[in-house]
Fold:
Amino acid sequence: MRILLLMFGLLTSCVASAADWQTYGTRHTENGVVTAYVDASRIVIDQNFRRVWVKLDYANKKAHLLSGEFSKKSLDFVLSNKVIDCKRQTFHNETMLFVFTDGTSHAVTLDAASVAGRC
Structure:
């Protein structure tokens, strides 16, 4: 698990340093405004699939959106590695990194079947 977190940390630091974040939407939620960005420099095209890095930036830095051990932490932003199947018009997140306002973070590797959605 530590190796996974280290690899994810190295990968996301490379993504952050060479990123070309482009705004692709803003949403008003019950927890405040969330702005979504996509890293235009890291889009990978493989036949019907697109792999992209997405950043969700929470304007309300005091929002407590997670449960369990992270319920008292305020989210700053979330990075996710999203896979989009253009043929099926579905997507899923492979990994997510929750970054909190106190500077700590929590990485999660996800099972595609458990987090799939429709485009």
